[in-house]
Amino acid sequence: KKDIPVANFIVHEIHCSRNIEVCRHCSELIPKSEMKNHMESEHVQVTCKCRMKIEKCLLKDHEVSACPLRPAVCQYCDIQLTSNKLQDHEVYCGARTERCGGCSRNVMVKDLKEHPRVCG
């Protein structure tokens, strides 16, 4: 998968076909002597803490962006909880009220950012 001078192409092609394999999972070019290690280190199935089975090479991305047990922070109170509990928590947390120092009215936490525009 690289440009090779025409004069070297046949020798290069023979070398590659003897020594290099294309991984059937990720299409990476892997030396044949390292294919077993590649399969075991990258494509073995592992279980995430959320109990989902996933290839080892995809686990980090899953843990950061898709895992329902990944850490998430509430936009209202900055408490850290799991992503699968964030929405319910924010509905509850945003509905709490705090007294406005300017107008002395109770304002829902979710409206505090916009309140200064309408505060009397």
TrEMBL record:
GO terms for molecular function: zinc ion binding. Keywords: Acetylation, Metal-binding, Phosphoprotein, Zinc, Zinc-finger. Residues 78-120 form the TRAFD1/XAF1 zinc finger domain. The keyword Phosphoprotein applies. GO terms for cellular component: mitochondrion. It comes from the Eukaryota. This is TRAF-type zinc finger domain-containing protein 1. It comes from Crotophaga sulcirostris. The lineage of its organism: Eukaryota, Metazoa, Chordata, Craniata, Vertebrata. The gene is Trafd1_0.
